[in-house]
Amino acid sequence: MQTNKLPILFLHGALGAASQFQPLAAGLSEHYEVHQLNFSGHGDAPFSEQGFSIQVFAAEVLSYLENKGLDFVHVFGYSMGGYVAMYLARHYPEKIGRVITLATKYNWNEATAGKEVKQLDPVVIEEKVPAFAKLLAERHTAGDWKTVVSRTAQLIEELGHQALLKPHDYAQIVTPCMLMMGDRDNMVSFQETIEVYKALPLAQLTVLPDTAHPLEKADVPLLAYYIRRFTTQNI
To answer: Pairing with 118, which of 111, 155, 167, 232 sits 20 to 30 Å away (CA)?
Structure first.
């Protein structure tokens, strides 16, 4: 069926799934043709034989666009999903309309990666945060949630050794981008977000008030407002 609505694709974060976007999708579906997918190994998507990496997830987005017959799409990426969106904008700009990221960590080195990896021990999660372990088990139905956690830790460790996007990469992204972060995000720093914002040729910066890192902490109507404003304004 033909639609005049703008296509927008939601990309979830590490340990996340497309199901987390339900409230936002409902808030935007009147104005957008909303698309969502689970990266391999997440939600109901089985692990890929190609691996578990930003590059693999980006290839899955390109495959999704081809299967859906989408020549281009706006992208909203939360956390790791935002990093995938930026990677796509850098290497496949012809496919990407505008990019909105929320709570995306851009500064990856051995120190920052090591800090995150320490929190990604499935045994510790199960013992210390059983409610979160239960949530992950319910969210990742295609495979063992512990494997998702372990492979995510490995992915982050690899990013710490070799970041895929460096300052000169952001300087070459021609896609209009809006970087969003919460003022109470304890994982993403203002400094790293502002550095990428300044490096991007066409960028806007939005700080959400009283907002921590988890997607569920974001004010959905406010988020929907900024997404709609950015994707429809003249730049």
So the answer is: 167
Which distant-in-sequence residues (6+ apart) come within 8 Å of 50 by Cβ?
40, 56, 59
Residue 212, pLDDT > 50, answer yes
Q: Is residue 202 part of a domain?
A: yes
Q: Phi-psi category of 210—alpha, beta or left, where left has phi over 0 and alpha has psi -120 to 50? A: left
Q: Model confidence over 79-130: pLDDT tens digits?
A: 999 999 999 999 999 999 999 999 999 999 999 999 999 999 999 999 999 9
* 146 belongs to a structural domain: no
Q: Under DSSP, is residue 74 helix (H, G, I), strand (E, B) or coil?
A: strand
Q: Which long-range contacts (CB under 8 A, 24 or more apart) does 143-148 make?
A: 143/41, 143/46, 143/47, 146/122, 147/41, 147/47, 148/15, 148/41, 148/42
- Alpha-carbon distance of 72 to 92, in angstroms, equals 10
Half-sphere exposure of 13 (CA within 13 A, CB side): 15
Examine residue 141 and state whether it is found in any structural domain, yes or no. Answer: no
Domain count of the fold of the chain: 1
